[in-house]
Amino acid sequence: MTGKSVPQNLELSHPDKVMFPEQGFTKADLAEYYQQTSPTILPHLRDRPLMAQRFPDGIGAQGFYQKDAPDFFPAWVPRARLKKKEGGFIKQVMANNRSTLLYLVDLACITLHPWLSRADRPNLPDRVIFDLDPAEGVSDFPQVIQTAGMLRNLLGRIGLRPYVMTTGSRGLHVVAPLLRREGFDQVRSFAQDVAQRLAAEHPGLLTTEQRLAKRGGRLYLDVARNGYGQTSVAPYAVRALPGAPVATPLEWSELTASGLGPQSYHLGNILGRLDQQPDPWQGMGRHGRSLAQARRNLKELVG
User: How far apart are CA 141 and CA 60, in angstroms?
Assistant: First the structure.
C-alpha cells in the first residue's frame, strides 16, 4: 500500500454518461450511491484485492472485467502484489477508502468483486461461500430460499455462523466467517463435504453434480468460488443488470418476507433500506470460527 496522500475530493469525468439506459441512471447517480454507502461498504472491501467490472458505455454496451491495476492508476490507490496461479505476479487494486471507490466508479466500474482473503495473507481465506442459484432455465426463488434455510441449519449444527445475501442477480449467497488458519484447498474441500451432505439429505431437491445435463432440474450447490484468486460480488455492490439491482445482506428472518426476490433491492430503494436498519453483516469478521472444528463436527454428524 502506498503512503501517498489520498485526495478528499475527486472530480467526476462525464458525470452525465448514462450507465443504465432503462432507468436513466448516470455515472453521477452511481457515484452518489457509492459515496453515500461508503461507510457501510468499505469494511467489506478493506484490504481485499478486487476485480472491477467496467462498462465504459453503460450496460447497454459490452463491458469487461479488470483484474490488474494498470500503471496509470494514481499512486495513492492501494494495490496488492499477488502471486498468480499460473506463475508470475499481478497487482490488484484494493478499495480501502472512499476516494479509491469513487475513482473506480469514474472508470465506469459498476460492480466490485473482492477476494475471499485479504492481501496480507492471500492464501488464507476468512470466509466460506455457497452460491445458490435456481436450476438453469428455472425461475424458482422459493427453492433457493428453502435451500438457504437448510444450509443455515447445517452450518449452525457444525459450529459456524452463517450469513445470507441476495446477489442482485438470480440467487442468494450464504457465507460463514472463518479464522484465517487453513488454505483455499482445505476450505473448498470442506465446502464440498457440506454440499454433499446437504444434497444427500435432500436428493430430490439438491445436487452437487457439475454436469448440467445430470442435474435434473435440481438446485446446484456451487462452491467453486472457494479458490485462490476467485471472487464474489461485494455486499451492496450494484449489478450491471437492468434495474440496477444491488447485492443486499439480509437478516435471516427477512427470507420469509412476501415477494422477496434476488433483485428486490436496487438503486431506487436501497438507500431507504439503509436509513431504516443497520447492515446485517456489520462486524461479521468478529464471528470467525475454526474450520478444523467445523470439519470434525461435520464428520461426527455424518458418522
Answer: 26
Q: Which amino acid is at 161?
A: R
Estimate the share of the chain in helix, then strand, then coil, as percent rounded to the nearest 5. 30, 20, 50
Measured between alpha carbons, how far is 182 from 186 in angstroms, rounded to an integer?
6
Distance between CA atoms of 221 and 219, rounded to whole angstroms? 6
In terms of pTM, does the model score above 0.85? Answer: yes
Task: Give the DSSP letter of residue 5.
Answer: P
Which residue has cell 481465506? 125
- What residues does 66 pair with on adjacent strands? 52
Tell me: the pLDDT tens digits for 83-141?
Answer: 998 899 999 999 999 999 999 999 999 999 999 999 999 999 999 999 998 876 556 89
* b/e burial code for range 149-184 (CB count within 10 A of at least 16 → b): ebbbebbeebbbebbbbbbbbbbbbbbbbbebebbb
How many alpha carbons lie under 13 Å from residue 258 in its C-beta half-sphere? 0
**Bridge partners for 219 per DSSP:** 206
Q: Which residues of 58-92 are buried (b: 16+ CB within 10 A; e: fewer)?
A: bbeeebeebbebeeebeebbbbbebeeeeeeeeeb
